[in-house]
Amino acid sequence: IAPRAAAQDLAGLRVVVSAGGTREHLDPVRFLGNRSSGLMGWALARAAVLRGAEVDLVAANVTLPAPPGTTVHPVTSTADLAAAMAERTASADLVVMAAAPADFTPTARSDTKIKKAGDGGLHIDLVQTTDVLAALVRHRSDPRQVLIGFAAETPTADSPLLELGRAKLARKGCDVLVLNEVGEHKAFGRPDNEIVLLTAEGADGPHTGSKDLLAHLIWDTGLAQRSHR
Ligand code: CTP
Ligand code: CA
Q1: pTM for this structure?
Q2: Taking Cα atoms as reference points, which of 198, 197, 195 lies closest to residue 186?
Q3: Ligand 1 pocket: which residues have CB below 6 Å?
Q4: Of 12, 113, 208, 212, which alpha carbon lies 20 to 30 A from 195's?
Q5: Where are the annotated segments for Phosphopantothenate--cysteine ligase (predicted)?
């Protein structure tokens, strides 16, 4: 990690990192959410600061203290995240979507707390949220801007991890896809992870280690993509 910090190879570059998990409110006290803690996004922000970047952190419901040297922009829902990313990324050199956005949102939000009706159940209608990363790819105005996404996957024998990752890279159209397996005891909320870095050139990994170490590998890969342009 120390040689990369000394290299200052992100000096003069603006980076935007999204982190955490979005929440879609059902009523004033309830939401749909996920287990993302923000640790990976925070590690990416710290690593970028060490390497000399100007860092904007768009944070969805992260309870960690702001990393020194960064500007944190708090958001709640996927729609908020989409708006904040559209605003912050226009002049960014590298963007990492480490956040776990909710894919679905309730069609309606109740102004009052939803009450039980007798002993009946509850049906909630959901619609898909905007795909923030796909929108960033579509609206990219600076051809040198590098867009990095994550893929959170639960592979099976029929759908192996690499196959799921390659399909997602093709679907998203980003420059780098950081592939990781998620589960009850994997990735979310942990200080370490195992990742594979997917680009048009192929698959690099698996790399295992602290999220701080992996963050540096992700920036290395992003910078390598930038040097191709
Ligand atoms: N992402 C996004 N906007 C969404 C959903 C996901 O920008 N509404 C981003 C994530 O931040 C991540 C990448 O897209 O960088 C992949 O997220 P993931 O949940 O793995 O994939 P999805 O495209 O949502 O597909 P699915 O969950 O169905 O596998
Ligand atoms: Ca998703």
Answers
A1: 0.96
A2: 195
A3: 78, 97, 99, 101, 103, 129, 131-133, 149-152
A4: 12
A5: 15-229
